[in-house]
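It would be a great kindness if you could assist me with a short task in structural biology. I am sending you one protein, given as its amino acid sequence and as whole-number tokens for its backbone shapes. I would ask you to consider whether the tokens describe a fold that such a sequence might reasonably adopt. The full record is reproduced below for your convenience.
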Amino acid sequence: MKQVYPDIEWYGSISKGSASLPRCPHADVYRCPRYYQSISMLKNAGIVNKTEHVVTDDILAYWEKTELWPIVKEKSVSISGSGDEIMHYANLCPEAAYSIFGLFASHLSRYENEIDEDNALTLFVNFGRAFEKDWRCNWAYVKELHYLECYVYSLL
């Protein structure tokens, strides 16, 4: 199985191959609830700069009234970890993930501990892996996602 590196080249090739826009036209907090929820969660976790609290509350109130807002938690954006360390990001908007992490992905998980990370890096070195294009140097798991496969995009 070929390892996918979901960077701008990968994303662009899918867009070009399907004759669609190179980036999601709805990647904005006012145009997409998944993008809004991703940016909001990342903001609350201290990963992105703080935005005006009132604006965020107004946008949240707007999206919660629409049929596009996730009803079940399994569809919602979530960030989890232990203590102050965030380990898992789930259901992110791929456009938001790219702007923060440099990968178009819906799910990202860090290595659980330094031992796991060191073991993975040792395997990469022993098997001659190229570190430039291998997300496994920084992440234990990445689920790539192009906006054309996003369930919210299909509804918009």
Helices lie at 8-17, 33-44, 53-64, 94-101, 114-126, 151-155. The chain has a mean pLDDT of 89. The chain has six helices and four strands. Residues 8-147 form one domain.
